[in-house]
Amino acid sequence: MVRALNRLSASGVKAASVGKHADGGGLWLVKREDGGAQWVLRVTTHGRRREMGLGAYPDCSLKEAREVADQWRAVARQGLDPIKERERQRREAARNIHMLGDIALDAFNSRKAELKGDGKAGRWFSPLELHVLPKLGKVPVADIDQKDIRDTLAPIWHTKADTARKAMNRLGIVMRHAAALGLEVDLQATEKAKALLGKQRHTVQNVPAMNWRDVPAFYQSLDGGSITELALRLLILTAVRSYPLRFLHLDQIEGDVWTIPAAAMKGRLGTTSDFRVPLSAEAQSVIAEARKFARDGFLFPGMKRGVISDMTMTALMDRRGLKERPHGFRSSFRDWTAEATNTPQDVAETCLGHVTGGAVERAYRRTDFLEQRRALMERWGSFIANKAQCNVEKMRKSGSETTTY
């Protein structure tokens, strides 16, 4: 029994023939016909014989094989399956490599194609980057639980409710991405964190919008001919969002129709179609005036490169002392259609780029109401550019006349 261990020698291993050679204690050298060799340890746990590879010879020497075999025999004596224990240790080691910050970035990159402009504006990633990753970015994703998430988002849960909600949503996506990669994560962690944080007290407020009756006077005050004023005028005339307008490329315009690529549109889930915007005579006039600023094909280029920023038009309104925001002109237009016209809801909503109706209804309704929208946008352009209308509005405000629209 004394000779049960260490039967092989280094020279004997090197000269071993094809077959299995016992070193004792369950350690075997398996020599293959192709000249290669493998160390194998046989142990019995829970009444079952298990064989686990310890490495290839000569990369793993006889001495190293014996040391590793001693370690796993000790594990087996504790009543543990050495193969399962090794797998557990590997998972533990792998878990420490997959930090939340790395998984979050991988999740973002995998979703860029789904995001507007391939996510270049950074809005999808910024809630994570600003409010989650500074605290949890270097934490293994498998270690993150609801308490970690609660403690991270608690400071902004009520004071910046919308941002906190977005951060929680993005974090949930990242956790699901980690699970898809085969990592062990708690997929319910974000929902549990919401329960711990409680209902948000903050009420989300709508973007401040100008009353539609005041739009003509404001529109006509944008008479300086600057690139920002022209951009804001076209934003008002078309009722589009700022992103597609800022990235308006001249090759998107054909005649009196501006075609916005589907990738640049928001709020059109369920369709991959480009969006056609009918251009009124006033809108075409603004575009013609803005062409002198065009650079690299973009109608509204930035000062040095790219296009004008998202805050350029907002800053102009701030300088005017207005609390209303450029995005609010979409609401102004929608209120005008509801209060001053008899426009069908489907037509009015389509003007804003909204998808209406269920999937089945949309499958049968192929029209985008272009002709109806063309007439409506022409009427809107005439209304806000009409100086006589502006004078009537001033009289209404002074109380000298009551006007019905």
UniProtKB/TrEMBL annotation:
<dbReference type="Pfam" id="PF13356">
    <property type="entry name" value="Arm-DNA-bind_3"/>
</dbReference>
<dbReference type="InterPro" id="IPR010998">
    <property type="entry name" value="Integrase_recombinase_N"/>
</dbReference>
<feature type="domain" description="Tyr recombinase">
    <location>
        <begin position="205"/>
        <end position="377"/>
    </location>
</feature>
<dbReference type="InterPro" id="IPR038488">
    <property type="entry name" value="Integrase_DNA-bd_sf"/>
</dbReference>
<keyword id="KW-0233">DNA recombination</keyword>
<keyword id="KW-0229">DNA integration</keyword>
<protein>
    <submittedName>
        <fullName>Tyrosine-type recombinase/integrase</fullName>
    </submittedName>
</protein>
<comment type="similarity">
    <text>Belongs to the 'phage' integrase family.</text>
</comment>
<dbReference type="InterPro" id="IPR011010">
    <property type="entry name" value="DNA_brk_join_enz"/>
</dbReference>
<dbReference type="InterPro" id="IPR050808">
    <property type="entry name" value="Phage_Integrase"/>
</dbReference>
<dbReference type="InterPro" id="IPR025166">
    <property type="entry name" value="Integrase_DNA_bind_dom"/>
</dbReference>
<dbReference type="Pfam" id="PF22022">
    <property type="entry name" value="Phage_int_M"/>
</dbReference>
<dbReference type="InterPro" id="IPR053876">
    <property type="entry name" value="Phage_int_M"/>
</dbReference>
<dbReference type="InterPro" id="IPR002104">
    <property type="entry name" value="Integrase_catalytic"/>
</dbReference>
<dbReference type="InterPro" id="IPR013762">
    <property type="entry name" value="Integrase-like_cat_sf"/>
</dbReference>
<keyword id="KW-0238">DNA-binding</keyword>
